[in-house]
Design brief:
25% strand; nine-stranded mixed beta sheet; 3 domains; GMP Synthetase, Chain A, domain 3; Rossmann fold; binds adenosine-5'-diphosphate; 31% helix; 17 helices; 538 residues; alpha/beta
Length: 538
């Protein structure tokens, strides 16, 4: 049968079959516990309220919010009535946020109370927004000049709990959109269709990917504004998993406490989050035995991090890869049955790579002379195709550089081994070109981070008259580490692992490394800091 796939139907399924299963949600003031029946009714009330406010098919519905149940309700209400969920990264600069809201032409904005000051500051620059809704537990709305401003809970109280999900959804119509966090240039918009989100949710449920199921207690740490918390709220709702939303400005302590208290089984986030949690686990005494999977992606997971989770805390750790343009799950690292026989070290090595392609997608790795050999050595750019891969940037001429002949060009340089396992060598723009050869900054970073004294390491290129570019390593040591760790210690540690010309020309020690709005190393800014160290006050 030709049945259109729709995002609203995922919540309808949960309402019917998992009405008792819970969403546990931390907001600024309260720890809420609601079940899918209540979430369903609240979502219907929200759709009717948005209808009253004039939101129509295709309109963009912006959110500026942390991970909590109200944000989850908008995840279903917006696409459920045919409009488009647009999650906005609250950590971007005000200029980027203005650009994104105007470019997407958001008609309504849902805003967490602590984000309101930011909107107060920029709202006169917003050209398309007709209504602002504040999400708060408080009865009184905060004092503000933003107009017209509505209270989320008041809108819901007046809404209709029996309002119907739209039945005339075309599965190829937009359900959501996200902007990439823009390491260079203006953010780029990516649109997700209903079909893409539903098929991606299926993929998250497969036994050999994330295997999300009813019995899971899922805590998305990755923000709901970062590629829809990697799509986990859609899949978890559909499958009836319990969801634990860690709320605004959470700390590693809160994460560790929630894991213990709510018996979290699966959680997802970027490596920085897991480094922080590891520190907390080292200091406290938490029971994390419920965890069956920590999903890690967004940037390369250092081998030392994977080992620490698995060997010290017995927590299974899965390395995955994707991008805003890929909804995002594209590859995940799991050992094949016959790879279980490898030595322990080989198994860790294998699992620190980004893994194999998720079923449903196609890939191609193209080097200077065409498609590369699957020999684990030849490097090329990863190209992807599939039903949850974007085919353009939203109203953006930069589409022409990334979407060519039906393939998305990821800008990631990889190798592929005989098993089809990919390893991200670098982003095209971060590869270091030295004497006509490429050096992978990621590989050196990971090697340095395997040193016991090192908390984080980031490697950048600096211009060099003779070699064109040379690597410099910026290292953050663990707190309280003895000060006998020097440049030489790190270089001695690295030298047996790399050819001589790969070794960084210098090791600089830093208090911290600048990070992007989604917790990735900001290499552009770090390069400036490195330059300043070499030529102060220039
Ligand atoms: P941005 O491009 O602004 O960082 P995205 O979240 O879309 O925003 O980032 C996608 C990129 O993140 C990928 O193209 C890749 O470079 C990097 N990435 C994602 N997952 C991994 C991973 N597991 N290992 C290495 N790099 C990764």
């Amino acid at each position: 049968m030709q049945v259109p796939l729709s995002v609203g139907s995922l919540l309808e399924h949960a309402e019917k079959f998992f009405p008792k299963k819970e969403i546990i949600s931390q907001t600024h003031d309260i720890l809420h516990r609601l079940n899918y029946k209540e979430i369903g009714q609240r979502t219907r009330r929200l759709m009717s309220a948005m209808d009253e406010l004039g939101i129509r098919n295709g309109d963009r519905v912006g959110t500026l919010a942390w991970n909590h149940h109200r944000h989850l309700e908008i995840y279903f209400a917006a696409p459920g009535m045919g409009s488009v969920l647009h999650t906005i990264n609250i950590r971007l600069s005000p200029e980027d946020i203005i650009y994104i809201i105007n470019h997407a032409e958001d008609k309504i904005l849902f805003i967490d109370e602590d984000i309101l000051p930011l909107i107060e500051h920029i709202h006169t620059h917003l050209t398309t927004v007709e209504a602002f809704v504040v999400m708060t537990d408080k009865a009184e709305l905060p004092e503000t000049t933003i107009q017209p401003l509505y209270s989320y809970e008041e809108l819901l109280s007046a809404g209709d709990p029996a309002y119907e999900f739209a039945k005339d959804i075309d599965e190829n119509q937009p359900a959501g959109m996200c902007y990439t966090s823009a390491t260079t240039g203006k953010p780029k918009g990516v649109v997700y269709t209903h079909r893409a989100i539903v098929l991606h949710s299926f993929a998250l449920g497969l036994a050999d990917t994330a295997a999300i199921s009813e019995s899971d207690v899922s805590m998305p740490v990755v923000p709901q504004f970062h590629v829809n918390a990697w799509g986990t709220p859609f899949a978890c709702t559909w499958f009836g998993s319990t969801q634990v939303m860690p709320g605004p400005r959470f700390t590693p302590k809160r994460l560790a406490e929630f894991i213990e208290k709510f018996n979290v089984t699966i959680t997802a986030g970027v490596p920085t989050i897991w480094l922080g949690l590891l520190r907390e686990l080292d200091q406290g005494n938490y029971d994390t035995s419920s965890l069956r999977a920590v999903l890690c992606g967004g940037s390369a997971a250092p081998l030392g991090l994977i080992k620490a989770f698995e060997e010290k805390y017995n927590i299974p750790f899965y390395h995955a890869y994707g991008a805003t343009e890929t909804t995002p799950l594209a590859t995940i690292s799991r050992l094949k049955s016959y790879q279980q026989d490898l030595s322990k070290e080989e198994r860790f090595q294998e699992r620190s790579r980004q893994g194999i392609l998720v079923p449903g997608l196609q890939m191609k790795v193209v080097g200077e002379k065409g498609e590369v050999e699957w020999n684990g050595k030849e490097m090329g750019e990863l190209l992807l195709k599939g039903p949850w891969i974007a085919d353009e940037y939203y109203r953006d001429t930069r589409s022409n550089d990334a979407f060519i002949d039906g393939w998305f060009h990821t800008g990631d340089v990889v190798t592929v081994d005989e098993e089809g396992t990919i390893k991200i060598v670098d982003r095209t723009k971060d590869l270091i070109k030295s004497g006509g050869e490429w050096i992978s900054s990621v590989e050196i970073e990971n090697a340095i981070m395997a040193h016991d004294a090192v908390f984080e390491a980031c490697v950048v290129a600096i211009p060099d008259d003779k070699w064109q570019e040379r690597p410099i390593a910026c290292v953050v040591l663990h707190e309280g580490i003895d000060t006998t760790i020097t440049k030489e210690t790190i270089l001695e540690f690295l030298s047996p692992q790399f050819p001589k010309w790969w070794l960084p020309d210098d090791i600089l020690f830093f208090e911290d490394i600048p990070k992007s709005s989604v917790g990735k190393f900001l290499k552009r800014e770090l390069r400036e800091q490195v330059k300043a160290r070499y030529s102060p006050q220039e």
